[in-house]
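Researcher: Please generate the 3D structure of the following complex. Treat every line as part of one assembly.
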Amino acid sequence: MTIDPLGSGHEGSGPVLDVQDLRTEIAVSNGAVHAVDGVSFTVNRGELLGVVGESGCGKTMTALSIMRLLPAGGEIAGGRVLLGGEDLAAMSDREIRKVRGKRIGMVFQDPMTSLNPTIQIGRQVAEPLKLHTDLSAQQINDRVIEVLELVGLPQPAKRLSAFPHELSGGMRQRVMIARALACDPELLIADEPTTALDVTIQQQILELIDDLRSRLGMAVILVTHDLGVIAGRADRVAVMYAGRIVEVTDTNRLFGNPRHPYTEALFEALPENAAETGDKLYSIPGLPPDLVAPPVGCRFAARCRYATDQCRAEDPPLRGDIAGHDYACFFPVGDPEMQSATQTHQIRRHDTGSTENGVAESVREAKPLLEVKHLVKTFPITAGAVLRRKVGNVSAIADVSFTVADGETFGLVGESGCGKTTIGRSIVGMEKADSGAIRIDGTEFTSLHGRELRQRQRDTQLIFQDAYASLDPRMRVGSILAEPLVIHGVGTRASRTERVNELLGEVGLPRSAADRYPHEFSGGQRQRIGLARALALQPKLIVADEPVSALDVSIQAQILNLMSDLRRRHGLTYVFISHDLSVVRYLANTIGVMYLGKLVEIGPAEAVYNRPHHPYTRGLIDTIPVADPWASRAKNEDGVRGELPSAVNPPSGCRFRTRCPFAQEICAKEEPRLKSYGTEGHRAACHFPLEVGVGAAAGDGMAASN
Amino acid sequence: MTTPPQPEQLQPIPDLVPGAAATKPLEQQDQPVRPMWRMVLQVFLQNKLAVVGLGVVVFFVLFCFLGPLIYHSNQVLSNLRTADLPPGSPGFPLGSDDVGFDELGRLMVGGQSALEIGLAAAAIATVFGSLWGAVAGYLGGWVDAVMMRIVDTFLAIPSLFLVLLLASIITPTEGLLILVIAFSAWLGPARLVRGETLSLRTRDYVQAVKMMGGGNRRAILRHILPNAIGTIVVNATFQVADAILTLAALTFLGFGIAPPHADWGGMLSNGTNFTSNGYWWMIIWPGLCIVLIVVAFNFLGDALRDAFEVRLRKR
Amino acid sequence: MTGYIIRRVLQSLLVVILVSIVTFLLTDLLPGGPARAILGPKATAQQIQDFIHANGYDRPLPVQYGIWVNNILHGNFGYSVKLNQSVGDLIVDRLPKTIVLMAISIGVALIIAVPLGIYQARRRNTIGDYTVTTLSFIFYAMPSFLLGLLLVLVFSTDLGWFSPTAPQTGNIGQILSQFNSLVLPVATLALITIATFSRYMRSSVMENLAQEYVRTALANGATDRRVMVVHVLRNALIPIATLLGLSLPALVAGAAITESVFNYPGMGYTFINEAEVRDYPTILGIALVISVATVIGSLLADIAYAALDPRVKYS
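Model: Done. Output below.
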């Protein structure tokens, strides 16, 4: 892109943005939330700064403070925000408007709601140009097409009059980015730009932002909760906790040698770091502090395993032993001498001499508990004015078969719309399959009706993704946990109360929880309640549909650990559904990979992860953001291209062929069958399977990168 | 007289502010458990309009039902010697009407039927309509189609015409008027609750009932209706206001209970004959009563809506 | 979108058929049977016998319905003994007058309510907002007959500015030319409509201001004014079409009472007058036509909504 219509070359030395001691407060009924409390950082030209932290840490408020777009009641209480030497915090409304969209562009999380639903995208991208430039209508039109092309929207000239709902999620986010870039800003702030998107699309958007930064020489602030997202992209990372930056340094150093105990704990809580060993995850106890009245001293002290009285009394300053690595801690962890990133990396790196974890071996012999045979489910799409004739089918599950052994954890992975949730719901009897069989403990259950079906349903329970949504807000937790017992007429009122107490104990909640309502609990606690309810009828099989994807890393670790404990204690079998391959890999013995209603690969977890045979599995592994900068960079070039085709008329033959780099004629004509490879039980459905070695993914990739 | 279909939105949403720790973790909660209705009540009482509304309603209940026990007046025998007296006349603080009935006493008696019929019609309409809507929405398919076409049909006939038609066929008594008004009023809650049910039935906690092996009855009665209670209660208060207005319109147009039965609409209608004589009190008093009670119920409904929404926002 | 419109049209057609069945069945329910009800109490037994036979009231119900529908499709709504006129002719004369009154009132109401709602949303929780809110509550709670009477008392009896009665005769052109007589009826109907619409507009604008796309526009450097005019206004206005459709039955009822108060010879005035004297052919005919007109009005509102909102494609 050569045209610089604004003539606003980004020259000059020094940081593009210099935030000094920023304080933002938000008025609430019981005081003011100190959402951002003394945050300082700089971003240089062409630099990508990652701001990472869990929900409520103030990262988004920091981003909004820079733009002065705080929600009602929000106010910058102190500090300076210097953009090229000018203090944004002190500007008049009129002046700051000239900065927004012109010198700073911003991209938000959800592109669907962030674009105006009733205005054509061409006009929306043109808005900043209309506001900030004197370009003629024709020039604006040209520039809009140019930026849309820049962000990779196919055939931009034809799409100008499209409305946001006519585009896919990934394309909408590209439009958002184009809108932010239209005036060629010095700084781009991206607030969780990929959280609402699928992994393969996430990869594409991150790549785009990275690419635009180097091409346009912008500074970028990437705000995210996902350590994996920043690992491969950011130059420097600021870790936030409870309204403050607790550690800031360049990416390699942070990942190689974290000094703040919070950063260290975050890494230890990541399932991918314990995937090979199957060890218990480290989980940070407790919850972040209430920012209306933040604690004295170090804000992390209450949850820190190294905290002393000094930590609880004094506020540790943000400083470091070496230049460019600051942390706010009196008793830093890690190695103070470490200078070079690669060195540190080798120390922190896990031994990837991958063996399959202990649990997997022991269950191999067990009898199958769940058998899914040739399961098919299609949802008709109807149209027509009078008679709702069928115009097509969404093929949600297309002939899927697998077995899950007693005591095993089966992980089902795939992007949204691949049919994994429908399979889960079919297993617990919430969805009726069109054909095929589901057997639990040898009993066929798709043909059952009424009482018999209900009786069988006791054996299988479901845990929902959004625990809060799955708990009736008008019921006390005690009644929620007793409901399955009441439905099945189990026990007396007294014995049910006893059982409820027992269940609360099982999931680590106090008895007093029974008298409270779901909204009084935190996200992790609600998922514990969901688990307790699933356990109430002593099922054999629990289907967990994305049980941790809505949770922060530290809370996610608590729930994953609890699920492992419960499995051991009760001999449970899990079907664990997730889009997050690293979580599945940590928990599951066997992994099944789904694509557009088809099971494309299945096998022992380590075999599938380390030696994938299907190109889709390989691509999926490559697209998952891994919280390891070396591994991330090593595999940046791969991934799954393009967008998920519609399941209404899925591609003929191999459904993946439209996005497969190896696809040939036969792939369109003939549907590949699952064929066995190497390790026992490892099967993939591909005409041109990846050879072992070629497909050696993450593990070997990491080694090679050194 | 429908109510605006969109719920009002409150502006700042403090509970959604990150870091505000709206849900204190269990360990940090020291105050005793507060039941949900108390939270709703608390928010409700913070609303000044709500308190005003409640005050007005309580006043009218006392005025209409206890008032006649304390303040005695002649409402049976017409007496032309005391006719057309302006307010402030001895023994007639609010004046008298064209046949000598005391206005103040007549307002008390007339309000009884307004409150009784308004509340009873709203109650019947709300209960029946909510069940109808919940069943239609939850079962879906052709059951829903049939049930909702019935609602559409009666909704298409403007309620006043429907009510007047029915009132012209029957000879009105209080019980029949309740039924007639409820017959046109249940359609609103039916449609509203159906809409709510359509969204509630896809919620995970309703789906969870299926997963646990529970039946439709349980899903509707234990989960859907309790969760639609906010919508239902709020609508019920508007229903009372609307029923009182409908009744006033009916009696104003002469389709009420035959004299000497008193009601505000009838008083108003009678008063219109004397506007040219300058007997303003025959119109103002009953008019004021109708407006006050209807506004009061509207205040209540609005405040309840806010109270329920605040509760639902706490997540 | 065409699919949606076709389906909506067919749905409306079904409702119209159902409404016709209900109206037809009401004829059968009339006191003393349809013949007595239609011919009036003075008819002899022989006359009634002849009438029953001639009109097929001794045939099975479905056949009767068929005859009835056939008559109506030919514009034959029966004959009003009381008015000594064919009901069909009566309706042809009265319906346009009602439509004119409603169209003017709704137009006036929209022109005032929309800016008012925007003003309230922008200046929410200020004195201005509270004043308008209180006023709209009062007008909303005020029965149209009371409001009409008060307007007459103030602007006609006291001030003598406007005529207390609506235009009485003539065609639409003549009615429109009698501006002085139109003011009060239009004001009555418009004020009540404004109360509903401005409240809706206020919450709709506020709801849209809280949307994320507003933040995006601000992030682009848009001014508050631009956000309101370019982004919010359009999205807040689209659902007004739906609101209009939903409140049509209530508006028709309000218009009926207003017509009655001002003696405006439209459908409502005629209906109320004839209902009092139990002129069943007339009131059933009017009820049917009014219902069908309401269904058509709602249908048009829905089609307008579909045309305005690019998100509406199917269902």
